[in-house]
């Protein structure tokens, strides 16, 4: 854990995900090594992991910040809360995308922030923003640093001074309006810290993205995040009712209203703005009383078609589960392979009950046999009676689609493991393999095409780069008219790992658009997805968005070129 | 009914709401005359209604459209689909706000559209938009003409040619994606017409605003409408997933996605844009299979505090009703007064059962006694079992708050009468009285203040203008964190009825803002609410919105100055 100069604000590893000393381990997962060997041809028994990167080996370009400028910042936030320290600057350079991890490991850090500031409150932030604009510098807000869309890095060719504004000090739940179920929360508060403050008073935010442990509520708003229980609690766009955004010359205030007809929604412009409209300092979010029941049940379907059909019918029905998730056959295989020996699911599967049941249902006789079975998790929250009833409604639909329930055991495991997945990328990179994710959302009628399209695109890309590659997927986040499809892909890369990665990632992204999906369901645009924005919201849509940024930030001082980056900028990183 | 020149598109009365020959009648409602006398001092038995306005009396200013320009339009849409006819121009001048009705009755029509066009499709609309911009003219899209926020009228001092683009020909449901529950609907389709097309195939849009019979889906999107069953189906901002908007030089296309993280939401910029970003030509909307049960139950509460508390608890509970609505004591009195003799509620109340029950519950002994009782409607939709269960959950909460259910009889009446209310304004105007509505939304914790604040503001305003005035209210549209409060007010006006109206309406609007509410929950901004926009979304928020319009419509050709009108413009009409 990298401590900020003046403490109080901690960060993830400078070179990877999460906390120092925490990582992914395979030795206690007997199915994992054979799985990886089969999937991408990597033999974990012989692969020699590279040693942990040493900061001393890194050549950090000098800060461009002038003494006058840092002095001015110090005059605002205090001497101890401004730093040009190399480690601090490196920590604030990238997010944690695969591209970021590879670049930091290969010492490709051309352009870092020149100075990092840790303001204590909104008044200081207003002064920093105004000073940055007055000096024609560049400001990039920084929350938890978990971004995977390239939203945090300075432009490679940026000539001006770049300031990273770390919101880590603004981490409090300021107030809970218990009658309205809304809480004022400072933008820099990380998931666990804000959830604990809410829990202590009997409340929950109900927003649990995979990045939860290392992402902030300001970041969730800035990237249009979505959490695992979004079926019940909504995406952050629904949860975040009010917000305060420091802009040059003044603070934009959206009051927490349940609904309004006040013209084009400025609230919905701030959502997904990735720092381009200013610095989000406070969010007034919907919160809920901690429910009496919060269960995740596991189900199996004979194949993904049955799984999709069941999720669609659930979304159309009167049932209101909190989570709807179904892994395809490959991701199911992965889940089983990462189970610890003799525990939970593995134990269950190793027994005779489940295989016997599946046989009786005729799953073994379908094309592909038991290789096609799909693991599903469905969550139920609310009063004991409500959760029970929702489960009853869901069970009937699952049964109709030839699925079967296997209880809460695997769901508990899922709940425990859900925030650990990002560690796997560092584990693979240590052994020369690239692993990453891409997700989309589309109408129910297009999900099968989206699924098949991404598989075909990835496999064609693997063929093109001559690598044995892997792809797997799950459906999550159901809506009335469609759902999110989340893909994980991996391959053992060569010397030009990022070049190869671009081929695969681009192919998958293009397949999303070609099959009626969006460029990202909940990771934002940044630089990474910017090349597909025109195809997503049409050239006229991009013109409107570009115009919005041009007029609200004429000097391009606020995290410039993110979201509507030129295509050239995006792909030349 | 005013027929368009070339038929196919019909319009409301040029001088008032709804269909020719249809109006509000009091003779069959024995409680109504005494009620009106008590409320605003108007004696219906002696009041002489003014005769129906005669179009021949109207002096219509000449069209400014040049022959060259109308010729160019005719070249695009066809000779028969361009008109400078006086009646056509008058019909397209205003919406149906009280201000509009008074102005048309008093022949205050300074600036009309110069020409009306009826394009057949999007391709024609693109050419019209481009021709308008090329000629530096002004374009105002027109759907059902039911707007009550001043969104349709040309600026009084507009020197350029003004074109009203009537979308009435674009009235079809083009396609239903039955798997995804979304339907492509042309923007000009009016409520009953599109609902019938959906119903014929077993679907419903679930969006039923008071204006339903005379408003279009394009207009719903352009003004951020909300329908009565929004608790279940969502506001139009939720329902409208995809849209096509013709802009100068090209068409903006938002595909129908269940969710996306593609930057500031352009979809949410189009929602509420009131023609300022272009012409909405098509909406892809969520649709639902017609539910087996669709019931509206009536309840009584001893007072409004109990009603509010029950609605809040319902919104927080596991129950998911389709409608939550509770009238305050005064609106309850109004509802009872508009009941027809010996039918439904009136019959029920005239009996001995209900008063007996209320007495047993001790309601007569509360401060104000039975005068304070509040009528509530709660809707349940879904499968028979689901509707039954939701009712059970709701009934328990109602009981906890000392309320009581009285069955579906009054609910059926409510369902039948719900679209008739707007006719009442014309009835009152015929007799010299001004009646209008203002609605807001705010957090649950502020509803009591919002309610009391609007009453105090209206009463102070009535005192100021020296009139006996009336105000009543209901809560409707519940959300997790708050609800909509809808106010109806009336008074017998003098010679300067609009001046007096401004005093009352402004006072109510200001009380909304002062007590934590928004300027409008579902009627849009237009010119009418524009003076409160800065207080609603903050000066920085208005700067962002103003910037958006400036950059997307630099020539101010697209319904200019609506939403962010100068305050002067708004109040000097």
TrEMBL record, chains A, B:
<dbReference type="InterPro" id="IPR016169">
    <property type="entry name" value="FAD-bd_PCMH_sub2"/>
</dbReference>
<dbReference type="InterPro" id="IPR016164">
    <property type="entry name" value="FAD-linked_Oxase-like_C"/>
</dbReference>
<dbReference type="GO" id="GO:0071949">
    <property type="term" value="F:FAD binding"/>
</dbReference>
<dbReference type="GO" id="GO:0008609">
    <property type="term" value="F:alkylglycerone-phosphate synthase activity"/>
</dbReference>
<dbReference type="InterPro" id="IPR036318">
    <property type="entry name" value="FAD-bd_PCMH-like_sf"/>
</dbReference>
<feature type="binding site">
    <location>
        <begin position="223"/>
        <end position="226"/>
    </location>
    <ligand>
        <name>FAD</name>
    </ligand>
</feature>
<feature type="active site" description="Proton donor/acceptor">
    <location>
        <position position="486"/>
    </location>
</feature>
<keyword id="KW-0274">FAD</keyword>
<dbReference type="InterPro" id="IPR004113">
    <property type="entry name" value="FAD-bd_oxidored_4_C"/>
</dbReference>
<feature type="binding site">
    <location>
        <position position="425"/>
    </location>
    <ligand>
        <name>substrate</name>
    </ligand>
</feature>
<feature type="binding site">
    <location>
        <begin position="274"/>
        <end position="280"/>
    </location>
    <ligand>
        <name>FAD</name>
    </ligand>
</feature>
<dbReference type="InterPro" id="IPR016166">
    <property type="entry name" value="FAD-bd_PCMH"/>
</dbReference>
<dbReference type="InterPro" id="IPR006094">
    <property type="entry name" value="Oxid_FAD_bind_N"/>
</dbReference>
<comment type="similarity">
    <text>Belongs to the FAD-binding oxidoreductase/transferase type 4 family.</text>
</comment>
<protein>
    <submittedName>
        <fullName>Dehydrogenase</fullName>
    </submittedName>
</protein>
<keyword id="KW-0560">Oxidoreductase</keyword>
<dbReference type="InterPro" id="IPR025650">
    <property type="entry name" value="Alkyl-DHAP_Synthase"/>
</dbReference>
<feature type="domain" description="FAD-binding PCMH-type">
    <location>
        <begin position="109"/>
        <end position="290"/>
    </location>
</feature>
<dbReference type="Pfam" id="PF02913">
    <property type="entry name" value="FAD-oxidase_C"/>
</dbReference>
<feature type="site" description="Important for enzyme activity">
    <location>
        <position position="325"/>
    </location>
</feature>
<dbReference type="GO" id="GO:0016491">
    <property type="term" value="F:oxidoreductase activity"/>
</dbReference>
<dbReference type="InterPro" id="IPR016171">
    <property type="entry name" value="Vanillyl_alc_oxidase_C-sub2"/>
</dbReference>
<dbReference type="Pfam" id="PF01565">
    <property type="entry name" value="FAD_binding_4"/>
</dbReference>
<dbReference type="GO" id="GO:0008610">
    <property type="term" value="P:lipid biosynthetic process"/>
</dbReference>
<keyword id="KW-0285">Flavoprotein</keyword>
<dbReference type="InterPro" id="IPR016167">
    <property type="entry name" value="FAD-bd_PCMH_sub1"/>
</dbReference>
């Amino acid at each position: 854990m990298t401590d900020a100069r003046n403490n109080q604000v901690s960060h993830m590893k400078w070179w990877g995900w999460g906390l120092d000393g925490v990582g992914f381990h395979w030795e206690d997962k007997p199915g994992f090594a054979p799985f990886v060997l089969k999937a991408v041809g990597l033999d974990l028994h012989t692969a020699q992991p590279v040693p942990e990167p040493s900061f001393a080996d890194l050549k950090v370009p000098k800060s461009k910040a002038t003494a006058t400028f840092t002095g001015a910042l110090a005059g605002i936030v205090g001497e101890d809360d401004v730093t040009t320290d190399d480690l601090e600057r490196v920590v604030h350079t990238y997010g944690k995308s695969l591209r970021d991890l590879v670049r930091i490991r290969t010492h490709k850090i051309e352009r870092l922030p020149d100075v990092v500031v840790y303001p204590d409150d909104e008044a200081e932030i207003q002064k920093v923003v105004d000073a940055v604009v007055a000096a024609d510098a560049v400001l990039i807000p920084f929350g938890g640093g978990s971004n995977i869309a390239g939203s945090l890095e300075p432009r490679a060719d940026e000539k001006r001074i770049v300031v990273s504004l770390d919101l880590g000090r603004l981490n409090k739940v300021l107030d809970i309006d218990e009658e309205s179920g809304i809480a004022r929360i400072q933008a820099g508060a990380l998931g666990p810290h804000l959830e604990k403050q809410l829990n202590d008073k009997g409340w929950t935010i109900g927003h649990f993205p995979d990045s939860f442990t290392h992402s902030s509520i300001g970041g969730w708003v800035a990237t249009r995040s979505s959490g695992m229980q979004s079926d019940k609690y909504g995406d952050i766009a629904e949860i975040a009712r009010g917000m305060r955004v420091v802009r040059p010359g003044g603070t934009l205030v959206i009051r927490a209203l349940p609904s309004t007809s006040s013209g084009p929604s400025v609230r919905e412009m701030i959502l997904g703005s990735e720092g381009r409209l200013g610095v989000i300092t406070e969010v007034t979010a919907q919160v809920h009383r901690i429910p009496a029941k919060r269960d995740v049940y596991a189900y199996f379907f004979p194949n993904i078609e049955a799984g999709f059909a069941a999720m669609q019918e659930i979304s159309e029905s009167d049932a209101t589960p909190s989570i709807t998730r179904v892994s395809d056959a490959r991701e199911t295989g992965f889940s089983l392979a990462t189970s610890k020996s003799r525990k939970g699911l593995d134990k269950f599967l190793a027994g005779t009950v489940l295989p016997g049941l599946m046989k009786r249902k005729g799953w073994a006789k379908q094309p592909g046999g038991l290789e096609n079975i799909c693991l599903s998790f469905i969550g139920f929250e609310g009063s004991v009676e409500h959760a029970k009833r929702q489960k009853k409604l869901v069970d009937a639909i699952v049964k109709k689609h030839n699925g079967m329930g296997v209880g809460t055991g695997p769901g508990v495991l899922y709940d425990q493991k859900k925030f650990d997945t990002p560690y796997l990328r560092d584990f693979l990179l240590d052994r020369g393999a690239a692993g990453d994710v891409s997700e989309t959302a589309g109408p129910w009628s297009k999900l099968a095409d989206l699924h098949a399209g991404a598989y075909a695109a990835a496999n064609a890309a693997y063929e093109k780069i001559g690598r044995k590659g892997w792809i797997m997927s799950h459906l999550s986040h159901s809506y009335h008219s469609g759902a999110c499809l989340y893909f994980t892909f991996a391959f053992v890369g060569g010397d030009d790992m990022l070049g190869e990665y671009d081929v695969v990632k681009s192919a998958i992204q293009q397949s999303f658009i070609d099959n009626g999906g969006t460029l990202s369901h909940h990771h934002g645009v940044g630089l990474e997805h910017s090349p597909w924005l025109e195809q997503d919201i049409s050239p006229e849509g991009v013109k409107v968005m570009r115009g919005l940024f041009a007029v609200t930030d004429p000097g391009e001082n606020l995290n410039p070129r993110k979201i509507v980056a030129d295509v050239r900028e995006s792909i030349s990183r």
